[in-house]
Specification:
This protein is of the alpha+beta class. Helices cover 36% and strands 17% of the residues. The chain has ten helices and eight strands. Pfam families: HTH_IclR (PF09339), IclR_C (PF01614).
């Protein structure tokens, strides 16, 4: 008896579906904190510019993608499914022994933070207790201008890009009042002259200045940070944040700088441009 047509045979592969296109676009972001231009996303996804733009515009209201001054980055939903902690394993792994060693030598809480789109994201903390800067729990987000670590990373960015970044509200966490842009640029200029070393004094932190009964002087150091350089520039920072009764001593500065350099060296590609030197004094 003759057989009818084989209805189980798979039909020819259809053109790329919408789900496949969305997946290609989301996968174009190689790490959680990366910002890409429209052209960069289209090239990585292998899709036409017009198609890429149309899908991106549909993904923004749904918070799969966010539009930033530097292009596009993963939004809240995209970050949730991307698992940002895993994306930073290449940074956190090499940094861990250096962070522990720095804490043992200084006795001060040590933090590793990253520039995650328009936010500062706290990746790791070594050492417990309250610090002079609130909101630095692991996984917390905040405005880049708010902490010494954020300002260390901002100092490596062109001034015009800094203006655009600070004009956008972070995705969550502690933001504080909007910064005075001229004052921020003056501070970043001082950080750049120190080669990226960001210093936070007690007088600048509410409740921790002279006469607060905690720090001995308004000039006491309560926050120190140095940038960590990867293949794409300063994408992270190592910082020390003092406890209320124990300011950071000057001798901690070269130790912090040394740790940031060692982590940068382990992240560096062989052909990467040399990073700026960070002096060992405030």
């Amino acid at each position: 008896m003759p057989h009818g047509p084989d209805r189980t045979t798979a039909p020819p592969a259809p053109p790329v579906s919408m789900i496949e296109r969305v997946t290609l676009i989301v996968d174009a972001f190689h790490n959680a904190g990366e910002s890409l231009t429209l052209g960069g996303i289209a090239r990585r996804a292998g899709l036409p510019y017009s198609t890429t733009h149309r899908i991106l515009e549909s993904l923004i209201p749904l918070e799969w993608v966010s539009q930033t001054p530097l292009g596009y980055s993963l939004g809240r939903r995209g970050l949730r499914f991307r698992n940002s902690a895993a994306d930073y394993s290449a940074l956190r792994g090499p940094a861990a022994p250096h962070l522990h060693a720095l804490h043992l030598r200084t006795g001060t809480p040590v933090f590793l933070t990253a520039m995650d789109g328009i936010d500062e994201l706290v990746l790791d903390r070594i050492g417990g207790g309250r610090t002079a800067t609130p909101g630095l729990e692991v996984g917390a987000r905040g405005a880049l201008h708010r902490t010494a670590g954020g300002r260390a990373m901002l100092s490596a960015i062109a001034p015009e890009d800094v203006d655009e970044l600070v004009a956008v509200s972070p995705r969550g966490g502690l933001c504080g009042p909007p910064p005075s842009v001229p004052a921020l640029h003056r501070e970043l200029d001082r950080v750049r002259r120190r080669g990226g070393l960001s210093v936070e004094r007690a007088a600048t932190v509410p409740g921790f200045g002279a006469g607060a009964g905690r720090m001995s002087a308004a000039s006491a150091i309560v926050g120190l940070a140095a940038p960590v350089f990867g293949p794409r520039g300063a994408t992270a920072a190592v910082s020390l944040h003092a406890r209320p009764t124990a300011p950071i001593r000057e001798w901690c500065i070269p130790l912090l700088v040394q740790v940031a350099r060692r982590i940068s060296d382990e992240l560096a590609d062989s052909g990467r441009d040399a990073r700026p030197a960070v002096p060992a004094s405030a």
